[in-house]
Amino acid sequence: MRTLVSESQLRSGRGKTVYWTVFVIVAVTFTTAFVFPLIWMVLGAMKTAPELARVPPTLLPQQANVGAYVEAWNFMSLAHFFLNTIIVVLGAWLVQLAVDVPAAYALSKLKPKLGNVVLGMMLGTLMLPASALLVPTYLTITDVPLLGVNLVNSPLAIWLPGAANAFNIYLLKRFFDQIPGELIEASTLDGAGPLGTMWRVVLPLSRPVLGVVSILSIVTAWKDFIWPLLVFSDPQAQTLSVALQRFAPDTPVNLLLAGLVLASVPTIVVFLIFQRNILAGLTAGSVKG
Amino acid sequence: MSTAVRLPSAALGVRPAARLRRRIRENVTAYGLLCAALLVFAGFSWYPIVRGILLSFQQVNFVTAPTWVGLENFQKLFADPQFWEAWVNTLLFTGLALVFGFAVPFAIAVLLNELRHGKAYFRLVVYLPVMLPPVVVALLWKWFYDPGPGLFNSALHAVGLPGLSWLDSPTTAMLSLVLVSTWANMGSATLIYLAALQTISGDLYEAAELDGAGLWRRLWHVTIPQTRFALLVMLLLQLVATMQVFTEPYIMTGGGPGDSTVTVLLLLYKYAFFYNDFGTASALSLLLFVVLGVFGLFYVRLTRRAD
Asked: What is the pTM of this model?
């Protein structure tokens, strides 16, 4: 495909020199800027605390202490906080799907009276910056209207507000809209109700968008910090991110680094596996056309 | 409404009553499927919006009923020197973040789009930091910024330059925070620009070249106008995102040194969760919303038009 610089320009002698010079500069800069800090973190965890304090720093650990990862795991009881995080993240994901998929299906295919008003009111919340709702949503969590329960320190405090996700509903609805009405009618003629049609016809066709929504919601929930910081006041209930910043001042730096590496592994692995879907979701979210 | 329904059904020979019953049943099913979403939106989105507005004009102590105080919360904010400091700092952060976070990813995307090799690697690598939890990024960079054995000062010393005080001096602290945040977030902007660049038709460059346009003129007259939409959308998104900066100052500087990195959201957090002054915190949220709502409105209009 033709871009800013043409193929013929690149093929010329000068073009080739410039191209490869630029290529090497980009390769070195990118690797230094984005990969090196991560390697530095992984290696740093294996150094001893005195070695980490040395000026100038060493590149490779003098004695690679892989055991620091195990030590960090035990020192900060990371198993406990990993489990907390997994419960919060998986729950948030499932609740989001259970709430948002039927809603998007109803708005897209059943087109109820006032459906557009409902959709508009949901989309309107996208205009609100998350921080503007921090205080009133927190107060709502401490005393849920009608039920009168306090959800502080309960994963529900993450799950329920997370399910009110207009962006997911919008993404799902747009996809459902593209599913031909004939398929729905055929299914209805076969005697399937709207729920059966959703389950057997629409959802199997919607795997790509369900994948995107799932990964986005899992990664977002794993990375979230400020909301879990507010709603988990009990240290035992905290997620990994919140616990790590609480431990930071009192943890030897090598163990803290090991903890940071361990906390990053899940999202990095998810990214390496689902790159395609993540990047698709990224562009679906912001720029269309 | 009723005549509109009766006419076609009569033509089809369906009894209007049956037609109406079907329509009602469909609506009941639809609202059945919608009810969970309506409940969570009502409880955790719409109700808090209304409550937030009310709270801005109230004083709450959770012992007695909230009292109506009019504009007192706002007056209290305006009298607080930290309030002005926080806005100046936040605007400084946003301004600097736009300089780096807006221009640099675009330049990188244009560059990457020209490369014929290793594209997959560059795309992967530039997005890697986006996947790290922000807490990890903040704690990692805090260690890099350490004036003693920190990575950055060591690198400066290695090439014979004096070290900087990074987070420890009021003049550099905010810039240091902007650098972290840019590093952590620019992957998404880069990839969005890259996607936009790939939709540009090669014919346009071809035609420009035939008209004698050099590299810079092609960039200015083809690339930038063709990606105008993506640029505008990202500008709005970044404005909204960077004005809500919290995690970096909270973890890395705690607002210091002095008040040099107190941001609006950090101040809001302090009012709500240190002073338990939820009324004033809500007033601050409302101000933040009014400022950001303008950009949000533009964003929604822009994306709607693109659909």
From this structure: 0.88
